[in-house]
Amino acid sequence: IKMFFLQFRFATCKDTLMMLAGSLCAVIHGAATPLMLLVYSRMTNTFVAYEIEVQTLKDENTTCSNNTIYWKNGSVYETAGNDSVYCGVDIEAQMTMFAYYYVGIGIGVLFVSYFQIVLWMSAAARQTYQMRKTYFKKIMQMEIGWFDCNSVGELNTRMSDDINKISNAIAEQVSIFIERMSTFVFGFLVGFIGGWKLTLVVIAVSPLIGIAAGLMAMAVARLTGRELASYAKAGAVADEVLLSMRTVAAFGGEAKEAERYDRNLEEAQIWGVKKGTILGVFQGYLWCIIFLCFALAFWYGSKLVIDTKELSPGTLIQVFFGILMAAINLGEASPCLEIFAFGRAAAKNIFDTIDRDSEIDCFSEDGHKLNRVKGDIEFHNVTFYYPSRPEVKILNDLSMQVKAGETTAFVGPSGSGKSTTIQLIQRFYDPKEGMVTLDGHDIRTLNLQWLRSLIGIVEQEPALFATTIADNIQFGRPGVTMEDIVQAAKEANAYNFIMELPQKFDTLVGEGGGQLSGGQKQRIAIARALIRNPRILLLDMATSALDNESEAVVQKALDKVCTGRTTISIAHRLSTIKNADVIIGFEHGQAVEKGTQRELIERQGVYFTLVTLQNQGTSNTNKGTSGYFQPTVQNSNIFNLGSVRLRSQSKLSTGTLSDTPMRIVQQTCEDDAKEIVEPAPVSRILKYNRPEWPYMLLGSLGAAFNGCINPVYAVLFSQILGTFSISDLNEQRKQINGICILFCIVAVISFFAQFLQGYAFAKSGERLTRRLRKKGFQAMLRQEIGWFDDPINSPGALTTRLATDASMVQGATGTQIGMIVNSLTSIGASFIIAFYFSWKLTFVILCFLPLIGLCGVFQAKMLTGFANDDKKAMEAAGRVSSESLFNIRTIAGLAKEGSFVESYQQKLVLPYKSERKRANIYGLCFSFSQCVLFMAYAASFRYGGHLVSSEGLQYMMVFRVITAVVTSGRALGRASSFTPDYAKAKIAAARLFRLLDRVPKISHTDGEKWDDFRGEIEFLNCNFTYPTRPDAQVLNGLVVSVKPGQTLAFVGNSGCGKSTSVQLLERFYDPTEGKVLIDGRPSHKVNVPFLRSQIGIVSQEPVLFDCSVAENIQYGDNSCSVSMDAVVEAAKKAHLHDYVMTLPDKYETQVGAQGSQMSRGQKQRIAIARAIVRNPKILLLDEATSALDTESEQIVQSALDEARKGRTCITIAHRLSTIRNADIIAVMSNGAVIEQGTHGNLMAKRGAYYELVKTGAPIS
């Protein structure tokens, strides 16, 4: 309870007043229905009295005078129970009065229900608005260590979903809950006032209903949890497979993966059927108890009316309905409790964050600002570990000093703490022991915003924001002029390329800077750092991701700007730090050596080792400028969907991007929004459900029985009222007992019918869902790789499609059909009964039905319509929040948290306004639909009274007709509320069918196979463009061939088409012109699975699956099950066996998601073993060693040399050392081979290859 009220902590006085007023309205609204019962009971008595009078006066010898019936002879007429009979009831006048009562109550309800909704929703909108603002601001001021422990995706979900859950829990649901509880209390009161004995008897039975409802809710929640958990497993499989689609395709694992997916689906199906069955049982039990309860209440109640005369017929109805209404409302209030519980859970997460104090608060005003800054930085015995990994010490008692105005370079192996020191200088983290000082002041005592304003930083992977180039540079320092921006761009060597762009400085850089090449992004980041005019410049591998040309340009820009500032540079390529004043060598979190380049080489320590390692294996021709570089760990492009080969984003600065360009992404996303799917015909959906027709038939039978129960109830209920006007007591008792027995029979039928409906439709629906999911997944795996390049088909989008579309289709079959059959039979039976007994009265009530139905439809429409607007409005805010959280380090480094918080708050205004508007419209609909019912009663009972008096209609028929039509109206409303599900189902089905019907461009089934596969490969005039980027020609007349058993090496800079040629060979794509010949046969005529089974591939970033080492190696051959001996054999060849034997679980060790538990060298060797197990004729090595450090590289390289023996091999290499002994070296440029030959020939030629070797550059 305490937590529930905590959700309102953002309420102002005004909000509290609004909520109190809304609650009062809700209480009054809740009291309206029980109040109506009092009118109803008096009305019943009037009808019964009038009926008795009419019956009695049929006797010729009776007459009415002074409101009492007399015999003609003057003595008073007495009934069997010795009572005199009242007469002279003016039924018309009485009914008019009752009609006025109804109308009065209806108008009251109209007003209070409107205010009840509007006040609560508006108050909730204001609080949600506050909450979002506070939460986002709080997140933005958290220290960076907090973000290490909380994933950005999770925070984004919290921003949207969790706060939505809270806002649901504090909005109109509260008022509806109060209204229902109020009806519950007043219903009981009305019952007790009418007759306490009957009330107690009914109450005694009601726990049975309550317990059942509670158990049902619990069971369903648990089973849903189980079902979701088992589906989540299947979803994880799908996600993993689609992310690594190229690996799956290359190793022919499609059938295996579909099987693995289906195994997990089976479990979900079993739980789903259980859930449906249990729902059916409980529903049946509930209805059964309710009808038995009716039987008991009417039997005992009629005793009280006839035998002891404690109740009048009207009071019997009043008590019975009072209790029934109380019970129903109590039941309807329980879903609200569930919403509150969700809200509470969500609030706990949100408020824990809001209440947490940030350890390093960027918005705080505390701390000194120094007047003069020299820029001396010193570390005093600093010990540090990351909060997310407290067991790993990164810095271990580190002491060093960086002098003002000098350029200091940090070198050392990965993980020795170089980047960490930079983060400590920016005060992203505080050291655990020791301190960092600036000009002798501990930086913890300085003002944080001010400190960060002194520092400019250029990172390895700079983050740009999705706005224009000018804005990105301006982020460095607010309020700068355009001249300053241009000046900074010139200093960073960025001005020229910016002026070549069509919109110059107003060019949008795309999400994360995706429209620009690596070198361009890097230079904009440098401009952004320079515009700050920083005292301290931090360069964290600022040029590592660039190719040679861009690197030279950027390096020049950096050398220019270092002068006169304290500069710290971290580099992996030693060439970039030749001109540093001081070099500090790191190892194991300590600074182990310090000096100039010459001093350190003489010392023969860390620096010396790095230099010699990097020089090893470079040919004698270029000892001097040895390949100073160490390939850095390059972040793969986000869009390059699980490709076998992930390339570094950086290409030559021609603006060619990695495999999917941003421009197209933006267009396709827009197209996707516009893309309208024709809803699928139901007949086709049912076709997929055909095997289950017996279940569906049984279910429909059950549903039809269930539908008839309401109309039958109307007949029985009115029949009971009719018995009260029978004058013969024995006849009366006999009829009442008969009716009660009928109620019991209905109860039993109802139990079985509900169970049948629940079980049968759950079975057919769940089977359909599983069938569609499996078919959909198989269809996805069948598509050619080019299809996955389209952002609409990104792995995330596809897994969501599998999860939601298939289960939505159930909305058109399964339980839906049951609901529809149920509603239709209910409506049909009700109308037959109503028209049969009184067609005139039926027509009067029919006038109101469209209104009641319309309100239901309108309400459903309103809510879905608004949900979409809301989503759209929140999307803009969501973009700001996700961009800010994603680039939090960059924002913190620029001290720009404030401006992002402001921008987020502006984006929230629109959703807030639309929420206020929605409150009004929803309030109007709600109040209208609440009041229509009262008006309908007023009109129909008034007209019924007229028919009774003028046409001699029996009063019990009036009740029968009205009850029947109103219940059918409810059924209609229920049916209409399911229409949105039904429409969604048809659209979801259409999307699925479109996937199932798509014919892949590269078929898996046809094509030729042959026995003596030799592995001879020939490219003839191949031209190729990627389907998502038709304007960029990747291969341009490629001609090259390789004989069986030879090794062909491709070299050239990134983007020249090396990897593309490998993908054509695997037939991920087919060339647009020209052909690829394999053993002399054109590749597009070769059977795809057969071709891929002959090829083994090892890529730069190998993709491993989340299973054991052995299973990953066995994945190499999916055509049969690979024995353990073969696995060990392959592991030995890959130099992996000894390492695996040191692991606790040996070959059963799990490698983690995407192989995260293994180091890169180990992953690479597993991938090599996987390729060897395949025993392929052709081996493709795509930069297989580029991501490794020097030691691992040598091990892996020897494993590869072992694997190459006797096979045709194509390698793509970054380092010349790895390909000197290839049979053919082909130098590529712009999609064509410019020269080829052996290492010796090419060196003698003194052409392009010679140049590359001489500069010793990395050829990336």
TrEMBL record:
Residues of the ABC transmembrane type-1 domain: 20-341, 697-984
GO BP terms, alphabetized: oligopeptide export from mitochondrion
Domain of life: Eukaryota
Gene3D superfamilies noted in UniProt: ABC transporter type 1, transmembrane domain, P-loop containing nucleotide triphosphate hydrolases
Domain ABC transporter: 377-613, 1017-1255
Compartments, as annotated in UniProt: Cell membrane
Alphabetical keyword list: ATP-binding, Cell membrane, Glycoprotein, Membrane, Nucleotide-binding, Repeat, Translocase, Transmembrane, Transmembrane helix, Transport
Positions of transmembrane segments: 20-40, 99-123, 174-194, 200-221, 278-299, 693-716, 736-762, 817-837, 843-864, 921-940
Name of the molecule in the record: ATP-binding cassette, sub-family B (MDR/TAP), member 11a
